[in-house]
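Trying the structure run again after the queue cleared.
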Amino acid sequence: MTIPVHGPVEGTAKPPRSRRALVAGSVGNFIEWYEFGVYGYFATIIAANFFTPEGGSDVEALVKTYASFALAFFFRPVGAAVFGRLGDRMGRRPTLILVILLMTGATTLIGLLPTYATLGAAAPWLLTLLRIVQGLSAGGEFGGAVSIMTEFAPPGRRGLYGSWQSFTVALGLLAGAGMAALLATVLTEPELNEWGWRLPFLLTLPLGLAALWLRLKLEETPSFQRTRTQTQIQTQTQSPGAGGRPQAVTPAPAPAREVAKAIALGAGRLMGWSAAGYTFLVVMPSYLQSTLNTSFQQALIATVLANLGFAASIIPAGALSDRIGRRAVMVAGAVLVAVLAFPLMHLLQDSGTSTAAKSLAVFAAGAAVGLMAGPGPAMLSEMFPTSVRYTGLGLAYSLSNAVFSGCAGLIITEAIKRTGNIDIPAHYVVVTCAVSTLALLTLRGDDHRRALRD
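Done. Tokens:
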């Protein structure tokens, strides 16, 4: 489903402007997902420091940690709505500047936050509050980043340009996993548990300042400028109202019902990507440690390999979708993930399986998720006109992530605890990818050839 709007016009930009937009949009996504990855990779340590009072169990603390993780995701739709509205009215550039300031500040403060042993019961509440701020800013990040990437993209390359959003997600997760693996190698376990876990969060401050500098140099997108100019012309030519003053006129918004339907359908199309992405790329370390009793280092290595496979397929998938369409590539990814889910779980659970086979399996699973993630941003951008694009695609993405990514760790951990079934991650991924496939089949085959709608 794509919201109908009169007068489709393709937004174009000169290559240097397009490249600057690509970098400025990507860097915020990198920071966002680096932090979310770090939180997931250090979940067991964070649980011990913030959610384990005297007498509390490790499993109970881990569930509470993932509840805080999920809560931040549920504030993403709020952030998408608030910042999306700002971005569609004021512009993409000023909104993205505000978003990166909030994300950087909240993440840095997590690295400075006193633990339960120091602050008592206030510590987990403060951590949760900072996670909420991160959720709000993350909700505003995706819509703006994808809007500037696709609105600046040259004709016929929206899939490629939009795929950089997903690629920087992979880079952020890899950077988080790499930092966690490095600290686990160079620090002793007591050092890592006591203060080492703080370092990845504090590193966000210089990264955020670099992102801020890049976004201050960013120009507004051609699509937004064109829409604003049309609004000004309509206002100037409108008949004067009371007192002889011209009445302000804005372009007729897309019908609210159509926008809501497009948001719901977009979330459904992303469901498999959201669920499989977090299951294989973020929740994996805690699952391997708490359920299969692997070491922290082994769990991180498996996760790094899955993220490498994810990163390797994203940009080729985005570029391929510019040639053969979003539908074909994304449906192939969803089906592959569903087919691979149970074999992957069984390989990881089998102590007799070679390390090489396990490594290849997690790499392939990550690559299959990348087939959905590569074309995904462009697919969403093509569903909404400029006047609601920031809000619409941001809400579709954040709603899907709130339900199917943010709750992945909580659902999987709690379900395994209650049922004892260690195949729960595979069940979760298969069901969500099946639903996502049905939603993706409603895509038109030629959406990638159509101009973005003003």
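The CA atoms of residues 106 and 130 lie 5 Å apart. Worth checking whether this holds up in the mutant runs.
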